[in-house]
Amino acid sequence: MDRHRRHRVGKLMNLRRFSLIAVPYVWLLGLFLVPFLIVFKISLSDIALSIPPYTPTLELSEGWAGFRDFLSQLDFENFEFLATDDLYWKSYLSSVQIALISTLICLAIGFPIAYGMANAPREWQPTLMLLVILPFWTSFLIRVYSLIGILSQEGMLNQFLMWIGLINAPLTILNTNIAVYIGIVYTYVPFMILPIYATLTKLDGSLLEAAEDLGCSRTEAFWRITVPLSKAGIIAGCFLVFIPALGEFVIPSLLGGSETLMIGKVLYEEFFANRDWPVAGAVAVILLLILIIPIVLYQRNEQKMMDADT
Amino acid sequence: MRRLTWFNATSLTLGFAFLYIPMIVVIIYSFNESRLVTVWGGFSIKWYGELLQNEAFLDAAWVTFKVGFFSSIIATILGTMGAYVLVRGGRFYGRTLFSGMIYAPLVMPEVITGLSLLLLFISIGLDRGLFTIVLAHATFSMCYVSVVVSSRLVSFDRSVEEAALDLGCTPFEAFRLVTLPIIAPAVISGWLLALTLSLDDLVIASFVAGPSATTLPIKVFSSIRLGVSPEINALSTILIGLVTIGTIAASLTTKRAVMRRRREEQMAEQAG
To answer: In whole numbers, what is the pLDDT of chain A averaged over residues?
Structure first.
């Protein structure tokens, strides 16, 4: 290969490499980063009776002066409004509370299932795994829907409870926060089971035998060996439930009632029902700020798990 | 060695009962003759007939199918490129931002993704409809595809790629002839994931869909708000059935592939 040709091939490769990087890069910049910057910008704007319903809008035709003018009109008014109106901070608090409690219930239900799966006869395990994955692939909306019939006044749960004589009159479960908890736990528990199961199957059984030989009781061995060694899976599962549960919209709007305050629902209503785009933008920005802490912790845990594997 | 203790058997039974009873109830009641969803009026498949005559549902299903088809293909191509760039791209300007943009949409609440895309489409004056839903779905699904494909790219032996290059393949040929066949299972599962995510999505679609394009989840959501209905039960049963068949088929195929590979490895060992 003479030098000239090599140079050309090199150039072509660079061009190929450049376009390989540029295509997904530009796509994500345009459809992920820029939209988010727009949300941030609108959260600093004021609501207006116009199309689009906020002010100021950026007029590039006016050049630098127009841009300066545009910047000077942005302010943190909407954030101040969110801080003073107790609807918003109550919704944030109650979203965090609902997500947190649901995560703990998911752990309490998911861990025994994962533990049972990991300790089941080996030839059962693919089937059990399939049984956990199946709900995961099934439409989220349909799984939430299937709960409506169960939890309603005349639903199966009330009929069952009355049949075994635990209650005399049907309970109101649907359209309360209890239904929201049940809904989140029901739809997200597979996310808890899978990572815990993954760490439990990697657990070396001889450690438990050694502990028992050295005089640990079974329960003691469980708490001192099984639980610490499955910590990474537990943490991953908790974040995988907590993060999406915090911004949940479908479950509170289908299963929750008027008392249910969740920030995803507030954002949706602020935008579509009240058409207050700047406030909806501010709500989104704060939700993201709240989520940054668990997301960073989750990433760190994933990194640790990857390092432990290699 | 492994035995099912009383405790484990109970937790498995109760756990799977919790996961499956609601869906089984929906399936049973889809065959209910009565319109009342709590009273059993005898076996009937009439709600399936009603469903198939419901134009609004059929139109929405067709829109959903088109969106899923196009967005999952775009997402698979972009996501595979993204994974390749992440794992094999080396250093380039803005790499951290790029990997951040791949991982962030996975944990972004759907309401925020939907809101931000809608505001983008409005500010560039793009009419909302099928096209905007495809763009939105392709964007968040490509990140899932990237994650699935990059985990496969990380784990495979890079020397086979280098061997192909040494033997005179161009980088593109090496990718097409060596890398792609190896990562193909991951690309296919990434595509399936992208397709499912698109068919399933309600929140993002309801932000970016205009009045001209209603997807099936949007349609189902608005009728669920009015309460439980036998048609929705029938629709749910069909969807649950499709997913069940698909999942079982996929797991059987992987099982067979694993067994075949094991057999080939054994044969190679014996031959060597």
So the answer is: 85
